[in-house]
Amino acid sequence: MDRSREYQGSLASSHLINADLAESDLCSNPPDDLDELVACYDSTLRAVMDKHAPVQSRTIVVRPPVPWYADNIRQAKKERQKAERKWRSSKLEFDLAVFKRKRNAVNNLLNKARQEFYTNFIEENSLNQRRLFRASKRLLNVSRDDGLPPNLHTSTFVNDLGQYFVTKIETIQRKLDIESFDSVTSLFDSQMTLRLCLCHCSLILKTCPPPGLDAVNKNLRPVRNLAFVSKFTEKAAFDGTYSHMSANGLYPIAQSAYRANHSTEMALLKVKNDILLNMNKQHVTLLVLLDLSAAFDTVDHVILLRALGSLGIAGTVIEWYRSYLSGRGHHISARGCTSERFRLDCGVPQGSCLGPLLFSIYTSSLLRIAQDLLPTVHG
């Protein structure tokens, strides 16, 4: 279904549009506040367009091109159509036989081209399981199921789910027992103790649910769908911040996450190499693993801004980050139903290029502290 506006431009209709705009609040009494002005601009132009160029719905059949469709198949289909028109005009048995031969030839060419394409596709992508599974689902016409029950009350579900994510973060923060670090404060100076407590704000062990679980709240994870303008702006901020950190060596040496030319494979190889070296020295190896619960969603904005300031980010840039982190919210959408807006007082958006970088900055203090206390560290 294609929805489009049709507008037959004329001098008279242009005068009517200009007259409606001149009488609107946008021209006669524009708001002083920027947000109100943008809303007024959008509503006024939308109302004028709906009046003079209403939306019309039309059904457009779009057949996506297939990769195996070649020129010889196109030519064979033309010959088939020509033979069919001749047979329908003459009604002769001879022309019917010619049409059937042309039709069978086209079907054979299509089947052969399709078979050759998928044979080559499987051979070329034998090591790429994602593309193979995607192709098999397309061939088998596997529908994309949202995994939700068919009799679900959607409006109640989206609001309950949005409230669940908010309550989950609040619960994690309440469970943090900062006072439990009193016994170790004597091991560090005041600055180190403060940094350790700050980093603790997102460190709670969690159990990742395996795939295939029921669509209940505890098995779901929020991923934000950001607008293009937001992604474009965030990319510019990411490039500047990443270049500043790389040029000045501000990344912890042991950190592999969300860095160019680093990967989880490198971290695993480093851990394996350290274990083997200790085994050769006949040393006992103690492996301490730390997992994060709702890691991106529990990032404290005050601590994050302080961490950015410690990296030399100040002035207009730090104020931009303050504006970027404040006033955030999210909606939950399912089956065409959208929840109310929920306020986000902590966390960085998942699905953006800037989120992983800010999370790395947020946790960098923990790696530096661990490097002072443990023989080897990798993150």
UniProtKB/TrEMBL annotation:
InterPro entries: DNA/RNA_pol_sf, RT_dom. Residues 123-379 form the Reverse transcriptase domain. The keyword Coiled coil applies. Residues 73-116 form a coiled coil. Signal peptide: none annotated. GO terms for molecular function: RNA-directed DNA polymerase activity. Keywords: Coiled coil, Nucleotidyltransferase, RNA-directed DNA polymerase, Transferase. The keyword S-adenosyl-L-methionine does not apply. Pfam families: RVT_1. This is RNA-directed DNA polymerase from mobile element jockey. It comes from Acropora cervicornis (Staghorn coral).
